[in-house]
Design a protein that fits this description.
This protein is mostly helical. Helix content is 80%, strand content 0%. The structure holds protoporphyrin IX containing FE (HEM).
Length: 292
Amino acid sequence: MEAAVEAARQGTFFSRNEFLIRRLHSLTGLIPVGAYMCIHLLTNASTLGGPEMFQKNVDLIHSLGPALPIVEWTFIFLPLIFHAVVGVVIIRSGNANLSSYYYVGNVRYTLQRVTAWIALLFIAYHVFHMHGWFHNAWWLENVANNELGGHQFDPHKASSTAAIALASPLKKLFYGIGVISCVYHLANGLWTMGITWGVWTTAAAQRRANWICGAFGIALTVVGLAALVGVTTTDVDKAEAYEKVRHEMNLEEQQRAEAEAKRLKSLSPAEREAEAKAQAEKEAKAAETKAH
Ligand code: HEM
C-alpha cells in the first residue's frame, strides 16, 4: 500500500490528479465547449435566412461590446484549450477511458480520437481564418492579415465577408470535413459521457442512448452543413448593399445619441429637472389621449 502511494506521489501531475482532470475534461467537452458549438452552428445556419437575419444574430453577439473578448476567452477559448491539451495527453498516453470504451466498438473509439485531431486542426485554422486569434492592432496588421488569409470575417458585414471567405470550393470541403468531425466528436462524446458520469449504466439504457446521441448528431450535422449552403447561395453584391445601408443608419443613430448625451451634459441641474418634468407631462398627456 505504502509503495503504491509513493509510486503515485512520484508519478506525473496527470497521473496524480487523473480522476479530477478526466472529469474536468469530460465536463468542458459538454459545457461550455459543446453547448457553444451548438449555438455557433445554429447562428451560422441563419445565413440561409438572408443577410438581414444573419446580421441581426451577429449584432446580438457583438452587442456585448468590449466584454466580448473577455466572454470569448473565459467561456470558449480557455475551456477549449484545456480540453484539447488534456485530450492530446490522453491520446498520447494511450490510456483509454476504459469504463466508457469497454462498451463501445473499436471503430467508435478510434473515430473519437481521429476526430479530436481533425477538430484541433480545423478549429485552430477556422479561428485564425475568421477571427484572427487576437484582436491586437499589431497582430492584425502583421500576422492575421489578408496576405496570410487571417481575420476575414467583419461582424459589420457578416454575410458578405463570410461568403467571400468561403468562396473557394477547397475551403468549403475543409469546413465540411471539420464540421462533421466536430459534430461526430460531440455526439459520440455525449454517449461516452453518459457512462463516465453514470447516466446510462445498463445495456438497454446504453442502446437507447445510442439512438438519442445518433439523432442529435444527425440533426446537428444538418444544421452545421446548412451554413455552408447559406454562404454558397448568398448574393454578395446584394448583401454588401444591405450592409452598407445598415452601417450608415447605425452610424447616424450613434452620432445622434452622442449629440444628445453631450447636450444633456451641458444642461444645469435645474434645466435638466425642468426638461424631465416637461417630458413626463408630455408622456402622461399622450397616454391620456390614447386611453380616450
Ligand atoms: C469542438 C470541439 C470539441 C468538443 C465539443 C468536444 C467534446 C467532447 C466530449 C463531450 C467528450 C466526451 C467526454 C467523456 O467521454 O467523458 C470528448 C472526449 C474527448 N475529446 Fe473532445 N471535444 C472537442 C475538441 C477536442 C479536441 C480539439 C481534442 C484534442 C485534440 C479533443 C480530445 C478528446 C479526447 C481524447 C476525448 C476522449 C477522452 C477519453 O477517452 O477519455 N477534443 N470531447
